[in-house]
Amino acid sequence: MTMITNHMPTAELQAIDAAHHMHPFTTNDELAEQGARVITRAKGVFLTDSEGNEILDGMAGLWCVNIGYGRTEMAEVAARQMAELPYYNTFFKTTHVPAIALSQEIARLAPEGMNNVFFAGSGSEANDTNIRMVRTYWAEKGKPSKSHIISRKNAYHGSSMGSGSLGGMDYMHAQGGMPIPGIHHIGQPDWWAEGGDMTPEEFGLARARELEAKIEELGEDNVAAFIAEPVQGAGGVIIPPETYWPEIQRICDKYEILLIADEVICGFGRTGNWFGSQTFGIRPHIMTIAKGLSSGYQPIGGSVVCDEVASVIGATEFNHGYTYSGHPVASAVALKNLQILQDENILDHVRNTAGPAFRAGLEGLADHPLVGGASVIGLMGSLPLTPHKESRAKFAGEAGAIGLMCRERCFANNLVMRHVGDRMVVSPPLVITPDEINIFMDRARKALDETWQKADKEGLL
Ligand code: PMP
Known about the structure:
Layout: H1 10-20, H2 28-34, E1 39-43, E2 46-49, E3 54-57, H3 60-63, H4 72-84, H5 97-109, E4 116-120, H6 123-140, E5 148-152, H7 161-166, H8 170-173, E6 183-186, H9 191-194, H10 200-218, E7 223-228, H11 244-255, E8 258-262, H12 276-280, E9 286-289, E10 301-305, H13 307-314, H14 328-343, H15 346-365, E11 375-377, E12 380-384, H16 401-412, E13 415-416, E14 418-420, E15 423-426, H17 434-457
Parallel strand pairs: 3-13, 5-6, 5-7, 7-8, 8-9
Antiparallel strand pairs: 1-2, 2-3, 4-10, 9-10, 11-12, 12-15, 14-15
Helix pairs in contact: 1-2, 4-14, 5-14, 10-11, 15-17, 16-17
This protein binds 4'-deoxy-4'-aminopyridoxal-5'-phosphate.
């Protein structure tokens, strides 16, 4: 075996990567031509690449490194747990201390009455669990016809067959036979892109009422659940109008539809509370968790389940589970992460220090000629790019071309921002300081200026 290290020349690492590593959500042939950026280490909110660049990670990895990089105490917990019990399963009437302790702590932090956790290795797996759990719940209640699940267009719930079907990404459905049967998608509450002449409040109500119309179309006795992210993340940080969630809650209550809040991004402080459900006053039956549960230091996810659903599921054998459900090392690391979030008052920091500074910074960027406005909640936000702010117009050329250009200018200026179409999205580590937010905004403005100049030169504005 040849030894591959951080000290090898970038080109050599890129060549081996191109020869053997198939990247997710990537045209691999194109990447092989360009060479992947090699990240070698990270500390706090900064990544270092193999060329020695220090890059401010405005996305916390994939919305997950809530406590920031380089926490050696997390490594110590992992090492200790690996030495003591690296693995054991939780099937066949066994358990272990890390899973016991983590489930108790999640239940303590979760909204009242949500005292039960089914562990998974990721958000995708957890959402697959949810599909089977809500259908099993209704079957056990003597209503097996209640099996259809309603989700939303442009939602993201994962990449497996089940979770990808719950998601509403057409370009994903186009490959591999998704969606699976029994999943339906209604419109999303994206006022910026789809609200037309309605006020945000009118639009929020109209989109929520699509749920009622869909339930009536399918028949109340055929619908098991509605699933949604409190704030759509991968869809473009879409913060729904204030009228949206109360109306969704009313409809779920009226028709006895289980409500699944996908908290994979919103959970563990991202919106300033433990869960986005608390920020929006949502009362879910199940919450999907992953990402910020361990701050990405270990792969772990799960379903936080209310007492009523858990009591019905608990009365039967639920024939479902993963080898790594409640993995001891991942659980111990996640528990340490939850302790750090509390010991360092990181949610207070989001609410009172970083969140307001981040909002002010992004709103400050909204005066840029390319930026249509700023949507922010806690430490997630989006900047829709537009050639004309008042009409919220789209660019004349290919959708997403300017967004991609802006992402590349961000990278060139040592800042990670992601683009979803022509919308820039951001979600930095929750520990980001006001000084680091200033660095973020300076680099973002420079990237926006360069994007504007380049787009103008290429006649794309
Ligand atoms: N749900 C949401 C809301 C997500 O944002 C994601 C990942 N971006 C997932 C589920 C899937 O999680 P994973 O990638 O861990 O499978």
